[in-house]
Amino acid sequence: MNRAAFNLITSQNRPRTLNRHEVSGPDRTLALGYTCDRDSWHVYLQNDQIHLLVYKAATRTLVRHEARATWNVVDLVPDKRLYPESTNPTFAKQLIDRGQSLRFSSFDEARYARFNGMAFHGPTHSDASLTVPGADSGGTR
To answer: Could you give the C-alpha distances from 104 to 81, 94, 124, in angstroms and in order?
Structure first.
């Protein structure tokens, strides 16, 4: 590859953000994965917002929650892996088209069978079973 070709492929002006209105369809999981710290990473569409929910799966303790209409795509992907069975293919393509690389775990047929057809593949922020550290109401929401 020569310098001109290199500059062309590395300087493409792809949008680096994704807006809720670019993600069509009903409320649902867009991607589920995990971080290097072994926290679960759930990106989902709900109430006209794209949500990011990070939680400790073993204790169901909330680590982070944000809901926005527009996200930088790098902020929607965990630093470890995504579960392919719980990642919406259209959403994945939208991230890739914006220059975001995705790392997946191995495909698990049993996991696919368990979650196939479900709208949400993990808890949402409104899930009563999540423990919220420092909450006045006994710590759950």
So the answer is: 5, 16, 22
**pLDDT for residue 136:** 47
Closest CA to 89 of 140, 41, 48, 30: 30
pLDDT of residue 14: 66
CA atoms of 111 and 84, how far apart (whole Å):
10
Q: Mean per-residue pLDDT for 15-28?
A: 94
Say what the pLDDT of residue 11 is: 64
Mean pLDDT of 99-103: 94
Beta-sheet pairing, 49-56 with 40-46? antiparallel
Q: Phi/psi at 67 (nearest 5 deg)?
A: -130, 130
C-alpha distances out from residue 88 to 69, 83, 84, Å: 18, 10, 8
Q: Does pTM surpass 0.90?
A: no
Establish how many alpha carbons lie within 13 A of residue 79's alpha carbon, considering only the half-sphere containing its beta carbon: 6
Task: Sort strands 81-82 and 70-72 into parallel, antiparallel or unpaired.
Answer: unpaired
Structure tokens that stand for 1 in this block: 């590859």
